[in-house]
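Entry:
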Amino acid sequence: MSTFLAKPAEVERAWYVIDAAGKPLGRVAAQAAVLLRGKHKPTFTPNVDCGDHVIIINCKDAVLTGNKLTQKKWQRHTGYIGHLKETRYDTLMATRPNKAMELAVKGMLPKNTLGRNALLRLRLFEGAEHNHQAQKPQTVEA
């Protein structure tokens, strides 16, 4: 009996919807990362991009547990000397909740071309409406 190895042309991609309302941000991000990577499939192959498309709705209603809202910070650098910008997560969740979710999912994906291609299949929406009804996405319960 030989090990099954998926070929890129044989991969079938499904669409999934995750509702983040009232759920911890990290739990939703971890679930999305598994679906984007394709690790839930029996045909998972580590060196082949076999993940699915993921739509996350209600990003603004995701919660951060503990003191993360005030203690956790998002740091970015502008490229100029000494220009390290910090934003607390209470500000980030109020102004750009999609960015907070994207950063959480991106940190759980591999740091190579497979991870970058998987991140392209992630769609984030602040509210409950999304424009991908034509793909007939399946809802995922957490």
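The first helix runs from residue 25 to 37.
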